[in-house]
Amino acid sequence: MSIPLERFGADSTAEQVTEGLDLSGTTWLVTGVSSGLGLETARVLALRGGHVVGAARTEDKARAALEQLGIEGTPVACELSEAASVRAAVSQIQALDRSLDGIIANAGIMALPELRQRHGLELQLLTNHVGHFILVTGLLDRLSEAGRVVVLSSGAHHRAEGLELDNLSGERDYQPWRMYGRSKLANILFARSLAQRLSGGRTANAVHPGVIATNLARHVPDPEALFARMRPQMKTVEQGAATQCLVATHPGLASSSGLYFSDCQPTDPSDLAQDDALAAELWARTEQLVAEL
After folding, report:
1. For this structure, is 180 an active site residue?
2. Is 91 exposed, middle or buried (CB count within 10 Å of its CB: 0-12, 13-18, 19+)?
3. What is the pLDDT of residues 3-48, one digit of tens each?
């Protein structure tokens, strides 16, 4: 028996929000499984009886993570910045002949200090948004009738003053946090558009996990100083994984779709993140990009 949603908040942990759930017979794809929130999410889903398909940049990293957790999951290589790797991951997961009860698009990179590009695209946008777009849309036919897609965004999406779809290379006025914010805005808009396209009981939502000291901050010039400033707001990894685990599994959210969650509760994102016309424009532009990769 699940715990009522209103009891959960910023201090809740992933174990607490899934307490009483039996996920036996379910299958969950988690990207970025090798560390941080992805590792904790995989641990808790397996603890509740779920089978985890764990994706990381290499199969060795994914396998090592599952072995570290002591679970019999399925390791998959998925380098999100390389379309060929993502498509190979899609093919591998398709071949498992398993329905997916949830896809948790957890992996990401943050605030690269200098402009980095691949295939003509800024690397944060490519990794955080485009790679997950290819992965998720490629697996929709494997998503179960009540399957859920959870896309990790961030409160940093408020930093984005727009998407600048004519500047996806990042060459114009590159600033690390601004571009990270755009990629996180894109995550919310993707989930919003996807929710409108899913049929039946399938859902898509975006989440802000909070501020957590993980290796996501590995590119920040002085991460210790950043975390010192943010310490009053910081969460543990166990708390940071709570919102995505809640949105992926809680029975009370079975019909919730197209929403944005923070601290285990639905909340309003920025006005831009609620712009359906912008979401549709991003979807169309992303499809064009994907066709070229």
Report:
1. no
2. exposed
3. 889 899 999 999 999 999 999 999 999 999 999 999 999 999 999 9
